[in-house]
Amino acid sequence: MHVQSPLFSRLTVALAIGLGTSCASYTERTSEALRDFRSGQFGPALEAYADVEEVGSSFLSGAEAGTVALTAGDWDAALRQFGLAAQAVRELEGRALTGELGEVLASWALNDTARAYEGEGFERVYLHCGLAMAYLAKGKKDDVYVEARLANKLLESEEELYETKYEAGGWGHLISAVTYELIGDKDDAYIDYQRMVEKGVGTALAGRALVRLAKELGRDEDLPALEQAYGADVPLPDGAANIVVLAAVGLGPYKMETVLPVPTPDGLLQMAVPGYAERPQPVSALRLIEGASGDAVRTDRIENVTQIAKENLEDRLLWVAAKSVARGILKRELTKKLEDEFDLAGRVAGDLFTLFSERADLRAWLTLPDTYQACRMFVPPGAHRLTLEAIGGESVELGNFELGPGETMLVFARSLDNRLYAHSIGGQPAGANAGAASATTETTTP
After folding, report:
1. Which of 14, 56, 196, 233 is deepest in the core (most CB within 10 A)?
2. pLDDT (tens digit, 9 = 90+) per residue, 354-403?
3. How many domains does the chain divide into?
């Protein structure tokens, strides 16, 4: 009969930890909060996600709760929660911006879930876009620029790390461009729209904006090529006001695990890696409708979050798999030693330890949308009755608004399954029976 060694005791504790952590994944622990979010129960969802201990990640707690608050139109709560998430990953972002992120990714532990989750690279980019949106809603334009620029720098660091280019960055540039136009800085807005076109994201909306701004700024050298690519500018009403819809559409992907157990003469060798699975998307786009004229404009897709998530994970999957294999080899060596010392009991204990401890990290920011979309409609000054429709879902009556000459009204929108939530910023409430002149749009009407 063997006397239990310290090694065997430590393995028993580690196995217990492995069994405990494998009982409920992040998706399972937060499933009720996600259900509340999808059904429009934003209060309970915000409360649940804000519980860092239950969520198990300061980054995810702030990111998920911030998204819920943004969808609910609670800008202060969104800033607070997104700020907590940003604080949790500040050191990591600093290392990413100085090119040291590879060292972080190369580290390994008992399994990937044993480490604090600090977000995928693309998630940290969208965190700063969320902060930019909340600051824009609050009218804090200087802060919008800070967050939008940081989002772009973090994206560039990811592209440099993986030596690739993502069809991303358009959302941050669009938020920045809209903000510049709000304060009348058309030159800087032009630069942001140019960057969208250069990156190949949101080109339909950005291209038309470039045509309009090139005419207004007297950039005659740019105009012919722009008109050839995106068409001639649409004549605008005198003193035209405009409505800009910034929309998060659908629900992004979630992670699933692929496990490859390989029995060997010396013990079990197991590799576990994550992959993204897409959700059904009943809503394809949104449509802004001006009630009196019946004119409508459909949102253009600026960024495909699901596609970016998959590409970003694929770029780091070799590192994830390599770490899993390396851990598996070490655990197999441990099993071999245990079998030498404890015979069959040691072999069983080692294999169970490998089986339950080598798990893929399925944590992910689950309240992100499937796509970011936007549109712009130009209207004459005056009163306008506005409706926002989710194509494939419900409609929301935004109300009647009086828009002054040159005024910009923002509409922040989010579709979840068939539901639609929208918040208007700007414009003055107008009488219920107020009419409106015909609208002119800066995007293709459906």
Report:
1. 196
2. 555 556 788 999 999 999 999 999 999 999 999 999 999 999 999 999 99
3. 1
pTM of the model: 0.82
Distance CA 66, CA 78 (A): 4
The domain of 299 spans 6-441
Per-residue model confidence as pLDDT tens digits over 293-328: 899 999 999 999 999 999 888 876 655 555 555 555
Residue 237 lies in a domain: yes
Residue type (1 letter), 65 = A
E runs forming strands in 265-394:
267-277, 285-290, 296-298, 300-304, 371-379, 382-391
**Two structure tokens written together for 63:** 């990111």
- Token pair 């699933």 is at which residue? 256
167 with 199: CB under 8 angstroms? yes
Maximal C-alpha separation, the chain: 95
Residue 423 lies in a domain: yes
- CA nearest to 414, candidates 258, 275, 246: 246
Residue 357: give its domain's CATH number.
1.25.40.10
Residue 375 covered by a domain: yes
CA dist list (Å): 311 to 16, 20, 366 = 35, 31, 17
Q: Which residue has the tokens 């709560």?
A: 77
Residue 426 lies in a domain: yes
Strand partners, 289: 296, 387
Q: How far apart are CA 261 and CA 335, in angstroms?
A: 15
